[in-house]
Amino acid sequence: MSAASGFSNIFKVKELQKRVLYTLALIGVYRIGVHIPTPGIDGAALASFFAQAKGTLLGLVDMFSGGALERLSIFALGIMPYISASIILQLMTVAVPYLERLKKEGEQGRKKITQYTRYGTVILSIIQGLFISIGLENMIAPGGASIVITPGWTFRLMTVITLTAGTAFIMWLGEQITERGIGNGISLIIFAGIVARIPQAIGNTFRLISTGEMSIFTVILLVILMIAVIGVIVFVEQGQRRIPVQYAKRIVGRKIYGGQDTYLPLKVNTSGVIPPIFASSIIMFPATIGSFIKVPWVQNISNAINPGSFIYEILFVGFIFFFCYFYTAVTFNPDDVAENMKKQGGYIPGIRPGKRTSNYIDKILTRITLGGAIYVSIICVLPSLLITQFDVPFYFGGTALLIIVGVAIDTISQMESHMLSRHYEGFLKKKAKGRY
Hints:
By secondary structure, the protein is mainly α. The chain has helices at about 5-10, 15-35, 45-50, 55-65, 70, 80-95, 95-105, 105-140, 155-180, 185-195, 200-210, 215-235, 275-290, 295-305, 310-330, 335-345, 355-390, 400-420, 430-435; strands at about 240-245, 250, 255, 260-265, 345.
């Protein structure tokens, strides 16, 4: 069975068809908003300023915003304030007893934490919007033109309100895609923003080839590198460590339950694309503000953490390792898994049920998470270093590739689960058979 045949089954499932079309419609709304400019900005002067920001952290920020920052559109802040607020709330959940209790309250607690995340998003958006508006007033384009047409508090308030409202709207779009679409709303918005920049990047590459600024040999090397990275991502993202589990036979009345052998799958990269997104968000929040403030020491910090620099890569890898372990600990609890396994009469051969099973699972999870963190770090850092050396006119390193491939795999899995639940074969016949 071909993948094309699998995609054709999407339109045979009415609910899935509605979800896909709904998701595409909301992504279309997001892409339209990227092209709506913030009032009071000289677009030509801003474009000339960003033309010299190639390879800097502003280029990375613009990649995550899908080109909205370069145009300073109403979606210029992108979804990063929401991600930053989510990180803060998750970290506080570990340290603040009240939030820890909310987390354990189920659906009601989750709604309360989501509400706090929204408040945090608005607060961070106001802070970033204010600093950006002040910085824009002090910025001069290469030709000497002022980027802000009419500086003053009117412009600052308008910019703060516009950018904050834009981020809040993107947050709402992401939540709607998650609830009524095909899921992974926030990741799909970032995915759409990165993919939308690919045609422009290809066009810039051909332009540089025609002018002789980039050789065909360099382009071939970059294409080979990207294909190799994509292959590694697909291979590792599907990788699992399968822990064998046996269930004892139970006699209930005249029927015998259990007795089967199965396994507990532990993904090599349990946290998926979350670590690089979170790590980028942490680095970009202060750096975005610093890029718009003409203060010497702030500028020195901003320049020190440009993509490709030693300090940036060290911080990036450190945050990736932290969030790989942190997010895995938040989403996967070995104690709960061991307890549920014990209640159902399951056990790992050679390991006593209960605490020893929990310790065994935690030990294996720690080891494979280390491997996953190393894999994510290499994928995100190595291509960006090589691309920086090749002087490519766009930021399309390993982080972007990991997000694109990871989100694509997750989205296909979401759609496939809908089809399989209604007795349609998925995108791969062999995988579909394995799930029955």
